[in-house]
Amino acid sequence: MVAVMRRDLRLSVRQKQDLMNPLLFFVMVVALFPLGVSPESSFLREAGAGILWVGALLATMLSLDHLFRFDFEDGTLEQTALQPQPLFLLVLAKTLAHWLVTGLPLVILTPLLGLMLYLEGNSVAVLCLTLLIGTPVLSLIGSVGAALTVGLRAGGVLLSLLVIPLYIPVLIFGTGTVMAASSGADVSGHLALMAAMLVLALVLAPLAAAAALKISLSAS
């Protein structure tokens, strides 16, 4: 698992355009939204959590198609499936590497963008915490869709259709937690539900993605 993670991280560093595209997309979505809707501070303070969460969701989804595709095209994925180690552990390693280069930078960038949207300090802190819990869930769920569509030429559109309905609960609880924090309510229940989603995704998503990869490899 460590070797697979190191390899994927080195490849991501070498392909700087794939590393920067989700971050630039995230910043552009957040920066353009006030121009297209309303620059009023009261509106942005109320909608800021939703804007940042939608931007993070779309930025994560933008990079999902590359999760297995490069390895599939050069034959590395087939060799990985033949390894004696359980495939779901190797899939988990690749997914964690994807989150480290996509989801974690989004979380680090969020406080600056949150202040730009007039969010208060407590709301920004809760927002970063929800993204820290929720973005791994997005990557794990997305790995299942990426595994199912890895052998398709136009898999990006199908991948979006597959994973967006599964992303909706994470989006609802992520934004709901920040809104509850901004109103002074207790958010421990919201965070516990998001943590439960993360544990469930960690247990089930690698198994489902490994099974989907075997189906895709056998079909190709």
TrEMBL record:
UniProt-listed InterPro entries: Cyt_c_biogenesis_CcmB (IPR003544), Cyt_c_CcmB_bac (IPR026031)
Compartment(s): Cell inner membrane
Topology within the bilayer: Multi-pass membrane protein
Entry's transmembrane regions: 20-37, 49-68, 88-118, 124-150, 157-179, 191-213
Keywords: Cell inner membrane, Cell membrane, Cytochrome c-type biogenesis, Membrane, Transmembrane, Transmembrane helix, Transport
Coarse class of the protein's main subcellular location: membrane
Keyword set includes Membrane: yes
Homology family: Belongs to the CcmB/CycW/HelB family.
Function: Required for the export of heme to the periplasm for the biogenesis of c-type cytochromes.
Protein's name in the database: Heme exporter protein B
Organism from which the protein derives: Marinobacter lacisalsi
Lineage: Bacteria, Pseudomonadati, Pseudomonadota, Gammaproteobacteria, Pseudomonadales
